[in-house]
Design brief:
Layout (H helix, E strand, L loop, with lengths): L25 H12 L1 H16 L3 H25 L6 H8 L2 H14 L3 H21 L6 H19 L1 H28 L22 H13 L15 H4 L5
Helix pairs in contact: 1-8, 2-9, 3-9, 4-5, 6-7
Length: 249
C-alpha cells in the first residue's frame, strides 16, 4: 500500500514545528518507551492473573506475547523511520490507510493514554496503603488522593519546564527502576524456593492447561509488553529521529 506524501519537512525528515527540536537523545527516548511499558505495575498486576490462568507455564505465555509484540515493533520501526512525526499513530494510520481512520485512531488514543497518569498515581497510593497495612498494620486510606495530587503537581511542573529537564528526570527514575528490578531478579534466582530454577516451564507438551487459559494468558502478557511505542511522539524533539525514535522497538 502506498504511503500518502505529507508536507515538506526538514533535511532529517521532520516537520518544522514549534517543538524543541533535538532536545533529547537516545537515553531519554529509550526511557520513555520503557517506563510507558510500566514493568513494575505489570509485575504487580498482570503476573498474578497470568499465573492463576496457566500456572507454571507463565514464562511460556510471556515468550509467545514477546514474539507477537516483536512483529508489531518491527512494523512500527519502519514507519518511524519513514514518518518521524510527533503525531505517532495518527500520522501512520492517516498516511497509510486514510485521514478518517487516522482521525478515529487519534481520538481513541487520546481518550486512553492521557488518563493513565492519574490512574497510575492513584494505584500507587492504594498499593502503598495495602503494603503498609499488610506489613505494619497501618491503615492509610488517605494516601492515594495525596499521591495523586502531589504526583500531578510534580508532573505538571516538569511539563511546564520543558522536554529537556523532564527527559533527564525520566532517565534517572527509569535507571532506578531498572536497578531495583535487577536486584529483585537476582534475589529470585538465588532464592528460587522449593521448585528451584528450571527450563521445563517452556515445555508445551504436557504442562499447558486445557481450554482457552493459555490464550487469555498470552493476551494479558501482551498488555505487559505494550507501551514501547510511546517513544514515537518524541521524534520531532529527539536528535536523529530516523535512527533514535525506532531504536527502542
Amino acid at each position: 500500500m502506498a504511503v500518502t506524501p505529507g508536507p515538506p519537512g526538514l533535511p532529517d525528515g521532520t516537520i518544522d514545528t514549534q517543538l524543541s527540536k533535538g532536545a533529547i537523545g537516545l537515553p531519554a527516548v529509550v526511557m520513555q518507551a520503557l517506563t510507558h511499558v510500566a514493568p513494575a505495575a505489570g509485575a504487580i498486576v498482570t503476573v498474578q492473573v497470568i499465573a492463576q490462568l496457566v500456572g507454571l507455564t507463565t514464562p511460556l505465555a510471556f515468550l509467545i506475547a514477546f514474539l507477537i509484540c516483536l512483529m508489531l515493533a518491527a512494523s512500527l520501526t519502519q514507519l518511524a523511520r519513514h514518518l518521524p512525526s510527533a503525531g505517532g499513530y495518527y500520522t501512520y494510520v492517516s498516511r497509510t490507510i486514510g485521514p478518517r481512520a487516522g482521525f478515529m485512531t487519534a481520538w481513541l488514543y487520546f481518550l486512553y493514554d492521557p488518563i493513565q497518569g492519574g490512574m497510575n498515581l492513584a494505584f500507587a497510593g492504594w498499593f502503598m496503603n495495602s503494603v503498609l497495612g499488610t506489613l505494619y498494620g497501618v491503615s492509610t486510606p488517605w494516601l492515594w488522593p495525596i499521591t495523586l495530587a502531589v504526583g500531578a503537581v510534580l508532573i505538571t511542573l516538569l511539563m511546564y519546564r520543558g522536554i529537556k529537564i523532564s527527559g533527564k528526570v525520566l532517565v534517572i527514575l527509569g535507571m532506578l527502576e531498572i536497578l531495583i528490578f535487577v536486584c529483585l531478579a537476582a534475589t529470585g534466582f538465588v532464592h528460587a524456593g522449593p521448585g528451584g530454577v528450571s527450563l521445563s516451564v517452556f515445555n508445551p507438551a504436557h504442562k499447558i492447561p486445557h481450554g482457552g487459559s493459555m490464550f487469555l494468558a498470552v493476551v494479558f502478557s501482551i498488555f505487559a509488553f505494550t507501551g514501547f511505542e510511546a517513544c514515537v511522539p518524541l521524534a520531532e524533539e529527539s536528535r536523529r529521529p530516523r535512527g533514535t525514535s525506532p531504536a527502542p522497538s
